[in-house]
Amino acid sequence: MTDFFAMGGYAWYVWMSYGAVALVILVESLAVRARLRRAADAARTAAAAPSAPAARFQPATGDS
């Protein structure tokens, strides 16, 4: 069993690689959860608040 965990002398590289990947997956999942929560909050507030009418584009008449 210790031979398995020693990984033939490459244990430091192998286990640090596993740790780095686990850390990246954890950070990414937390970031996705935060983005989802912000999007849901924005959608909820946009649906609850009445929006102002959109400004209309005034084309240039060329009189200047």
Would you mind describing this structure in some detail?
- The chain is mostly helical.
- It has a domain at 18-47.
- 67% of the residues lie in helices and 0% in strands.
- It is built from 2 helices and no strands.
- The longest helix is centred in the middle third of the chain and has 38 residues, at 11-48.
- It is elongated and about 85 Å long.
- The mean pLDDT is 86.
How helix-rich are the residues, as a percent range? 55-70%
Major sheet attributes: none
Q: Supply the number of helical segments.
A: 2
Structural class by secondary-structure content = mainly alpha
Approximate shape: elongated
Short summary:
It contains two helices and no strands.
Write the layout of secondary structure elements.
Blueprint lengths: L1 H5 L4 H38 L16
Please describe the structure with a list of short key phrases separated by commas or semicolons.
single chain; 64 residues; mainly alpha
